[in-house]
Inverse folding.
């Protein structure tokens, strides 16, 4: 068959698959590890988490460029290519019910779950895009755009008070963790890092331990954020601490005042009432 008539993916399948494999580790996988560790810093204290968030936003106007270059575009590339691979793959767990085959199927299944979870997560916390018209007319009516970086713990914690959301985050986060841990193992085979059966078993054990530890970090971050503001007294205390940090950084010139990155006064007034157990 004339190669010009083949699809772009088929003609460049080798290099695309290698780039897909590499992007799953760097930067996508590396970012996920850092993201979960930053969120888990709330277990130390809400102030610790807020400090980490301020560090991220210290990039200022360069932050959107950094996010799109090193996070969003690589994630989109990895997800789109992954979906193409899934569409062309065939699970055979019924014919060959071996452990590796189940991991093969789970790798693709968790990839699909991760794809939709990440889209939901970004919409829920950030609203995808920061245009005011989009946020006001689409995001906010559907409960998105909950996170405010200058009130990080209080807004993230409030967004996780609904148990349906918590379950969705648990399923999505654990799917991402499995997909990364198992993906590192398969990446090592793809790139010839571990080729013998003994080396692959040893690498599988290491990747398994890594996955369990990262899952513990992720679960700790999820419930740490939730529990930090699950009573009116805790919420009020956290908001007070966040506002004090903001005022100090504003006075010292460490940050440029930005009300879009803070919770509105109306949200502050109604937050305590919303957190009252019913």
């Amino acid at each position: 068959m004339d190669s010009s008539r083949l699809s772009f993916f088929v003609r460049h399948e080798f290099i695309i698959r290698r780039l897909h494999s590499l992007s799953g580790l760097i930067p996508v996988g590396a970012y996920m590890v850092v993201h979960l560790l930053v969120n888990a810093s709330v277990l130390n204290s809400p102030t610790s988490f807020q400090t980490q968030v301020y560090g991220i936003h210290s990039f200022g106007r360069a932050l959107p460029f950094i996010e799109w270059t090193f996070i969003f575009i690589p994630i989109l590339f990895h997800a789109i290519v992954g979906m193409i691979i899934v569409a062309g793959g065939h699970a055979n767990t019924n014919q060959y019910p071996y452990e590796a085959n189940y991991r093969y199927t789970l790798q693709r299944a968790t990839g699909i779950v991760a794809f939709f979870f990440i889209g939901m997560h970004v919409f829920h916390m950030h609203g995808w895009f920061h245009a005011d018209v989009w946020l006001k007319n689409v995001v906010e009516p559907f409960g998105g755009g909950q996170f405010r970086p200058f009130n990080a713990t209080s807004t993230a914690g409030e967004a996780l008070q609904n148990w349906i959301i918590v379950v969705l985050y648990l399923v999505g986060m654990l799917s991402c963790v499995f997909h990364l841990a198992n993906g590192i193992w398969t990446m090592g085979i793809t790139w010839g890092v571990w080729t013998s059966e003994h080396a692959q078993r040893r690498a599988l054990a290491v990747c398994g331990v890594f996955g369990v530890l990262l899952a513990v970090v992720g679960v700790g971050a999820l419930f740490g954020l939730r529990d930090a503001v699950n009573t009116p007294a805790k919420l009020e205390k956290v908001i007070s601490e966040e506002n004090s940090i903001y005022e100090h950084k504003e006075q010292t010139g460490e940050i440029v005042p930005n009300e879009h990155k803070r919770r509105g006064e109306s949200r502050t007034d109604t937050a305590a009432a919303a957190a009252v157990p019913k």
